[in-house]
Amino acid sequence: MGLFSKKDRAAEQLPPPQHIAIIMDGNGRWAKKRGLPRTAGHAAGAESFRRIANYCRTLGVRYLTVYAFSTENWKRSQEEVGGIMTLLQRYLEEALRDMEKNKVHFVFFGDLTKLSPELQELCRDAEERSRQYHEVQVNFCLNYGGRDEIVHGVRRFAREVARGERTPEELDENLFSQYLYSAGVPDPELIIRPSGEQRISNFLLWQSAYSEYVFMDVLWPDFGPRDLDEAISQFHRRNRRFGGAK
Ligand code: FPP
Question: Which of 39, 41, 97, 229 has the fewest CB atoms nearer than 10 Å to its CB?
């Protein structure tokens, strides 16, 4: 199977996590090291995403969630923000074109109302047209923040209480999960952050309560299948107790 022998692939020996989430970090530093503009780093990051999404499918990962643009990323230069939006637009156009071949269900986590009308429409189209596919689901976090997601969820629930459709006593952890962008998606078992940073950066705050974090030194554009294998192997070596005793 191409580059790696089966023996190298510790990850192949155990089933992969059903839901992997990734903070695609390090694009800027990757570009800087090469004397390239930051947008070139994001373009390489988008390629890396394509490669890893395909590999996740090969491994049988059911859900892949990626942090593509945070509620804080608007602070970057207009040129950089525009560059990322263009890459997303191109990717979604391509995904819509290849939808029947790839059979990926696309879902968007985040407040999309701040995106351009064209991008909002592409997101809506991709989500609607891919709803029929159930094998692989890619969740794009776009204008996403974990705190923002919780505030949105609380607001929605409060509105329903105000209309008399719910009572505050009904609310428990399971019900509240249904008010989040990730409604219906199981929590990620594994969250990977490449690039050497060891922070959560407002990513999946509610959903990561019991996730295993793997921090890796490789920059996202250089992150390949072998790195994903390594992260999955680390995951399998963890002893997950969910607050219980060993
Ligand atoms: C973080 O690296 C990365 C982002 C804020 C943007 C991620 C976007 C992409 C990978 C492209 C999106 C397109 C598709 C199709 C997925 P950074 O810029 O913060 O890197 P640095 O910490 O080295 O500066």
Answer: 97
